[in-house]
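Collaborator request, handled under Task 6.
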Amino acid sequence: MTKLYAVYGASGCGRSLMPVARQQLARENDTSEIVFIDDALHEVSEVNGHRAMNYVTFKAQHAEQKFALIAIANSAVREKLALQLEQDGIYLWSVIADNVVLMDQAEIAEGCALSPFVTITSNIKIGKCFHANLYSYVEHDCVIGDYVTFAPGVKCNGNIHIEDHAYIGAGAVIKQGTPDQPLVIGRGAIVGMGAVVTKSVPAGVTVVGNPARILEQK
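Structure tokens returned to the collaborator:
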């Protein structure tokens, strides 16, 4: 069966995930081609040694099965593209680095991107198209929704619930909750770079600082 794989997005996020994707296919002894999809392109070109093309051209490529990793940080765009791929019969592709640590009972939905040195420990449930950048970790008994993004070095401790479309900035630390009262990061909330989150964060707000406080709009 002929397969074609794609990293959707040829910006920094996509270019840093392409080597991870290559390693994964090598690990699986799969010699299929991986291309970049970039909708700004009008003709097929080359990015970092891989063919790059727009989505219309990708759809026209001959392959019995197609898979795409959405390597775009904006979670709303990720959701829109995931729906488009599913409508077009293209599978969401999960890409996991060689040295990612996955422990017991970690349930991760399709379309995830787990960069090098990420750790996912035990009894964790993670939704669609999760991005975990370099050196991030998710500790025990966490529940993470769909289209959540971790920048590099996020420390997500145990008993934390992170709702859909939340963004956790580089180096942020989220304090451990308890089994009967998990700490909650609300839908679409943004946790700023280096923030230390000691209590639940409402949906849609931005928190910054140590301890993290809601950033008031001026």
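The cover message to the collaborator said: "Residues 3-93 form a domain with the Rossmann fold fold (CATH 3.40.50.20). The radius of gyration is 18 Å. Please let us know whether this matches your experimental observations."
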